[in-house]
Amino acid sequence: MTTETITQAPAPVHSRGNRKQARRNTLIGWTFILPNFLGFLAFTLIPVVAAFALSFMEWTSFSAPKWVGLANFERMFASDSFWIALRNTVVYALGHVPLTMALALILAMLLNRKLKGIGFFRVAIFFPYITSLVAVAVVWNMLFSPDSGPINQFLGAIGIANPPGWTSSSDWAMPAVIITSVWRDMGYYMVLYLAGLQAIPTELYEAAEVDGASAWQRFWNVTIPSLRPTTFFVVVMLTVSSFKVFDLIVVMTNGGPGRSTTVLSQLIYQEGIGEGKFGYSSAISLVLFIIVLTVTVLQFKIQQRRER
Amino acid sequence: MTNMAEDLKATHVRDAAPLPNGAPTAEDRRRTDRKRSPREQKKRTANIVIYGVLVVLVVALMVPFIWMLSSSLKENNQVLTVPIQWIPQEFVWSNYTDIWTRIPMMGYLQNSLYLAVIITCLQVLTGSLAAYGFSKVRFPGRDVLFLAYVGTIAVPWQAYMVPQYIMMQNLGLTNSFNALILLQAFGAFGVFLMRQYYMTIPDELCEAARIDGLSEYGIWARVILPLSKPALASLALLTFVNTWNDYMGPFIYLTSNRLWTVQLGLRSFVGQFDAEYAMIMTGSVISVIPILIIFLIGQRYFIQGIATSGMKG
């Protein structure tokens, strides 16, 4: 993300007043950073570090913290709520990531042209992403309503006799959530892809055309390779956001029916804030963090190998 | 990933410049050929097809909004009908007057507005100050510190919400706006976004101002801030919308009804009166309207902000 962070040269060395100047710079730099840093330190950095430590402690709202080593993790791996939530989260990610990515790319390619009024289409497709989540969830819940909801009426009209029960069925609740989230997110990733597409030099396409490449060949041999950095970023962002999915599920299905859509972050909330099991919930947090980190690092490695 | 906005700019420049070998561009060809070549005829047809596809696509994607608006103007028993009525038989405008008395909607709106304004102001102010420190003042440890900032952006918020909650409980701040303000106003995201922008402002400008005798604070206030209006607008809009739409923060911290935001109020209304379809949709429309207005005013800053930072926060 910030490859150019450290490339700035150190302050030039001129004279003896140097050290004083450096001290002054440090002071000035810190006064700029401090207002934000105090809040950041107290409410982000310390909690992040605390989450690590807590996961090795037994601490509930009724007892003092006590070091218990890996006990929380043993309990977690033996609990089927954890495995169900993990499985659901993975299923959600497997649906959400490829679908959003593919649709975002298709939309970006459709919208990457100089046409009158193209801006309107871009803006319209982007809008769901910043619409309030509660409104989105509520509307889609009604669209999905099994008996007389518009979606099932449409499915009936195109000849599907037994349309799914969506959010009231434990098999179809997750697909319903995925459809809603894809609809909501794709406009955002479309913007990222648009930026990527616009950075591809037109000369590349012209050269390919001169060489007689078909539209399909140009897509595979020019567009896709040129978009690799964007795709890398999109996949990482999408995967991370999939594993963090929380509010959409809470509002749309609240994890149900049964436990069919319960995800990891919801479990963290229930155990930690709902039931006050601070240590145990932090252990689940750590697993969530490790998954997100692993996926990111893995993507990064794959990306690096491709570039070589 | 850092410089998408620049790439965007660069492409536009490249498009405008003639090709290096002096070959005529598509633009030139179009100008010189008075008659339409078959190729251009084909292009025109292609454009019409693309317009058609886009219109169908956008209408399909807008169905949830269309349905929301139409349902908000119906009687309850008209909402889920077979077949679907896209235009209400008769417009029940009273939904929009009744909702204010059915639930304390005005209070919810005020709470949301209060939180969004305070958090946005603090985030923009502290974010741009810190970004100046991180990009224009050189001192030891600066880059390590910045890495710590960026590192926490990668940690899912859910992973540390429990320690945050314990902390707020100990400070006695649960069930108050202050908890949310403290948690959301000092985000690393704002610093990151502003720094990305400040890196594109040449250091020579600051040097010149220094030689002219401006202090660092003066440079920040009188040189950098005026230059970074687009980035400030991006950050302000993104923060405002995020705060307005936030559900989990208020859900965890605000328990008493009088503190609820629009999102919480709407959710609880749905929970209590799940058969009041029309009124629920009315509430949804009202909760989206402020976002729509802000988005229409500042959409270009949203898109720029995303292209610059690659993330929303």
TrEMBL record, chain A:
Its transmembrane ranges are 27-57, 90-111, 123-143, 172-195, 232-252, 278-298
Species of origin: Paenarthrobacter nitroguajacolicus (Arthrobacter nitroguajacolicus)
Protein's name in the database: Sugar ABC transporter permease
Its main localization is membrane
A Gene Ontology biological process term: transmembrane transport
Entry-linked CDD domains: TM_PBP2
Q: Where is the signal peptide?
A: none
**GO terms under cellular component:** plasma membrane
Record flagged with keyword Transport: yes
One protein family per Pfam: BPD_transp_1
Tell me the organism's taxonomic lineage: Bacteria, Bacillati, Actinomycetota, Actinomycetes, Micrococcales
Which stretches make up the ABC transmembrane type-1 domain? 86-299
Q: Where in the cell is it found?
A: Cell membrane
Q: What InterPro entries does UniProt report for this protein, alphabetically?
A: ABC_transporter_permease, MetI-like, MetI-like_sf
Query: What keywords would UniProt list here?
Result: Cell membrane, Membrane, Transmembrane, Transmembrane helix, Transport
Q: Which family does it belong to?
A: Belongs to the binding-protein-dependent transport system permease family.
From TrEMBL, chain B:
**Recorded family membership:** Belongs to the binding-protein-dependent transport system permease family.
Subcellular locations according to the entry: Cell membrane
| Keyword Membrane set for record | yes
- In this chain, composition skew of type Basic residues spans 32-41
What does the record say about its membrane topology? Multi-pass membrane protein
Q: Which lineage?
A: Bacteria, Bacillati, Actinomycetota, Actinomycetes, Micrococcales
This chain belongs to which protein, by name?
A: Carbohydrate ABC transporter permease
InterPro entries from the entry?
MetI-like, MetI-like_sf
Q: Would the keyword Transport turn up in this protein's UniProt record? A: yes
What are the residue boundaries of the ABC transmembrane type-1 domain, all occurrences included?
Answer: 109-298
**Where mainly located?**
membrane
Pfam families noted in UniProt: BPD_transp_1
